Every structure is written in C-alpha cells, then in structure tokens.
Amino acid sequence: MSQSGDFRELLLDIDAHLDSKDLELLKFLCRDVVPFSVLEKCKRSLDIFTNLEQRGKLKEGKSIYLQECFHYMKRKDLIRKLGGDPQKLEDRIRYEGPAHLFPFRVLLFEIAEDCGKEELEKMKFYSKTTLHLPKKMTEKVKNCLDLFSALEKEELITNIQVRTLEQLITITEDEELMDYLYEYKNKNLVSSPTDEMNAPLEIKQDLGINNCPDTPAVATQGQQQPAMNLPFQSERTSSPRISYSSLNSMTPPAQDAGESLLSRQQFPQTPQVTPEPSDDFINFYKMTSKPRGYCLIINNQKFHGEIKFVERKGTDIDEEKLKNVFGKHLHFKMDVTKDATSQQIKNICRDFSKKDHSQFDCIAVCVLSHGTTGAVYGSDCKKVNIQEITSCFTASRCPTLANKPKLFFFQACQGLTHQSGLQRNGGSTRVVNGGIQTDITPEPPREEGEETIDDVATPQSMIPDESDFLLGYATVPGYVSYRSRSAGSFYISILAEKLEKHALGSRSQDLMSILTEVNNAVSELHYRDPQGVMYKQVPAPQFTLRRKLQFDKC
User: Fold this and answer.
1) CA–CA gap between residue 524 and residue 341 (Å, rounded)
2) Are the C-beta atoms of residues 280 and 161 closer than 8 Å to each other?
C-alpha cells in the first residue's frame, strides 16, 4: 500500500472513532477554515478531513491543525494516532496558545463546554429578545455551540466585535465564563500601535493591517494602496488625530494654527485612500484587564507645620466614595495613604512608577488635599507641584504604562478666588449651605525666588510632555473648590456618582463624556454665604488622551 493510502486508512480509522457529537464539535472548530455551507453538508468526520486536505490544513506528516482540534475535544487517543504527543501539545498550548486554531474560535468553544442549561436559557432569551435572532434559528438551538453558530451566521458575534458576546455572558452572571472572555481580551485585543503589529493574523486582516510579509496589502482596482499608519481617534473629535511635537499647549489650535500644524505633517505626494477605522481597537483604549490597574488615593485631612492649615473635614467621605466606585464598581486595585507629607507623596508616585503594570490597562491617582495653582500640599504644609506627580508616570519613567491611559483627579483649590454665581432666568440650581469649607490654604511666607500665586505656571505646564494623560481638576486655575463637612466635596461626590452611573452597563459612556456631565452637575451646585452672596464651582479636566476611554470597551 502507498504512503498516501496508509494515511487514508488512518483517517478512516479515526473517523470510525468519532460519533455524531464529536462531528458537531469538529465542525465548530473548523469553521474558520471550512465555510458554513460546506460544513453543513458534511455527514461524517471523513468529509471534514477531505475539506481540510483540500485547503492545505491536513496531509501526511502535517496534521497539527487536526491535533489541536482533538486537544480541545479531549481526544488524546486520536492525537496519538496522528503521531502527536498529547502532553507536549497540551504544554505548548498552555504556554503559547494554539498555533493554528484562531483564538476566538477557542474562546467560543471553551465557553460552550462550561455553559450550563440555566446559562444557555438566559443567553437564548437575550438573543431572541434583545439581539433579535430569528425565531426559527432560536428554536433549533439545543446547546451553546448551536447558539454561537447561529449568532455567527447572523454576524452578531465576531472575533473583532466581542461586545455582544460579553453582554451574553454578563447576563448569565457566571464569573468562570467571564474569566474566559477577560483572558481572551487581555491576550488578543490591541492596546497600542505596537500591539497592532503583533496581533493575531485574523485580527490584523480585519483591522486592515497589511505590513507583515504573510499578509500583503491588497488595493482595490483603481485605488492607491492604503497608508500603513492607522489614524487614531482623539477624545475631542472623530477626525484623525494630529501629532503634536509637544504638549505645552493644551488648548485646541485655531483654524489657521491647525492648518499650520497640518502643513508640517508628512503627507504622500499622491492621493491615497486611508480606510476609516471603525473598530473598537483603534477608537478605544483596551480596558479589559481584571483588575484594571492600581488606583492610588492620597487623602490628607490633618496638617502640621509652621503654617497651620485647617483640617479638611469631610474628606473621609470622599475617600469612601472613591474606594467604592474605583474598587468595587470599576475593579481597580486600591491603595490608600492618609495624611502623606510632601516627600511621601513624591515617594509613593516614584514607587508605583517602578512597579510592573504590564498586566494592567491603566492607572488612576486621586489626590485629596489643600492646594494652589499647579500644586497640592503634603500634610507637612509643603507644596508638591502637580508635574512632580504626573511626570513619574511618563513612558520613559514607567515603560509598562506606555500607550495606556493615566488618570489623575485632584480635589484641591487652585487659587484664592471664589467664583461668583449668577441665577439664570428660568434656571434651576442646587443650593448647598451647611458646613461648607474650601481647600484653600493660608498663603505661606514667600521664599526667595518663589513665585506668587499669579506667577505660578499656567495649566498647560501642569501636564507632562507625554500623551495618554488625563488630569481632572476640581476647579479652574486661580479659584477655590468647595467641600461639605457632612457630604464630601462637590467634585468628588459628583465624579463618583457619574462614574457609577455611566461607566459600565448598557448605557455606558466614554470618560470624557462622563466628565462633561460632571462639569455640568458641579456647576449646578451653589453655595450661599451668610451675607447672601452666591458662589459656584466648575471643574477643569485636561487631557492628552489619543483614544476614547470607555471602561467596558475592548
């Protein structure tokens, strides 16, 4: 018997060891190679083997694709028949992942294997009522693989758009199933330009990334080949972002300035068609790690020093609200320090900048203290410049946070002036009177060479010359911020409320949209002093984010 005849006999033998249930599992695993319509006509496993041979996925001496399928089907006996070592294959997949099966296919398969009847019924109901899966298709669903197959046929779930799959799993309330999805996202979804180049082949193809030797770029007839550099979407606009050489100016450029900036970009001499990115990987930061990252809270309530700062009563309420929303709601790893001196604040930031953040998607730092323009105070009444805090987390000083969002929230005054309030005709405001304090400080004696409040750097210099930063200030430069001794500060109270309401769930919003709501809500709060004078406050977020940040986006 010829060698090919021996291999055919081997496949016949393997086919004899596979029942109807095995056939359905094999069909599902092979769907990225063999079309749906072809698989539906396969009545036995041998038919699938023939199609794999026709597509170059199976031949004598090259059966690793089929071996990986058998690995997930838990058929070690068939791996051995193909000449493989089940243990070596298992070890390789555990540490490196499958070499031939697409990660998304494996994800669906593993979820289906662990999905119980109760979870399946919940997903079927959601698919029918919310995803509008046709009734005829829903009635044919007998197991989770059937459901996933139907959803794939309708293109309701894909390897790029996993939001629907996440919604399906969320309604099951099964944490083990959700862990499969988190692991997939962390390993396979794109979080930076470098990751885009290293993404799995099928994700590159769907993203239109064509600069690898194995996937040559294909231009449609009559078109120029698309540019290789994919434009990123900024938080401020949906148009491709402009690359700034520095971030000394945080205000958006005027039109003529914008034209000047554009003229400095290196555009091709001939017109080229750049595909409009619509994928979450390009528009949004990856935000799927669990926990998402560290959240540091520096909460200064009591102060000691030559100049006596008033105790910040009510700040403990702010701390609890932040721990609840960042820790319990958004799944950050919390670290809280109370009454930190100026040097301790610097040390905390330096220490955390030296940590390995590779497994996390971002970092959040919340500083609650007295302050002035461009600085906050330690419990020793000594000033710490904002830039000393943020600069610890630049890409050069903290490489494992490069291309990841770095979020800073400062509940502190930025000056001595109270913002006056104006009652609008027909408008409504929320007046807060009892127990109001500010986070303003007595002006310390001026040291030689030290700037006055008016001389302190403008807001632009508070932001490090790096991208991917967001700085949320409780108030605009030069003005005070308000805090209730019984309810916490205006800013942190509203920030926590809006994050808890809008950061996750079916009506989730990106962070900048949430902060816009925070600005509006805080501006609606007014404080009336005993003389009847009305004061108000409006926060001042500043950012160098290059993508949208949404906590339940990939």
Assistant:
1) 34
2) yes
Domain ranges, ordered by start, for the chain: 3-101, 106-188, 294-438+458-543
Residues 284-330 have pLDDT tens digits of 999 999 999 999 999 999 999 877 788 999 999 999 999 999 999 99
Helix, strand or coil, per DSSP, at residue 46: helix
User: Angle at Cα 212 formed by Cα 208 and Cα 213, nearest 5°?
Assistant: 130
Domain 294-438+458-543 coded CATH 3.40.50.1460: yes
Beta bridge pairs of residue 470 = 407, 543
Closest CA to 441 of 373, 522, 526: 373
Is it true that 3-101 and 294-438+458-543 share their CATH fold?
no
pLDDT tens, position by position, 109-161: 999 999 999 999 999 999 999 999 999 999 999 999 999 999 998 888 887 66
Residues 6 or more apart in contact with residue 480 via CB below 8 angstroms = 413, 414, 415, 416, 417, 418, 419, 438, 439, 440, 537
What does the block give as tokens for 285? 């930061």
Residues forming the active site? 370, 413
Strand partners, 376: 371, 384
CATH superfamily, region 3-101: Death Domain, Fas (1.10.533.10)
User: How far is C-alpha 58 from the geometric centre of its chain's CA atoms?
Assistant: 39
Strands 333-338 and 294-299: parallel
- CATH architecture of structural domain 106-188: Orthogonal Bundle (1.10)
Are 409 and 472 in contact by the 8 Å Cβ rule? The answer is yes
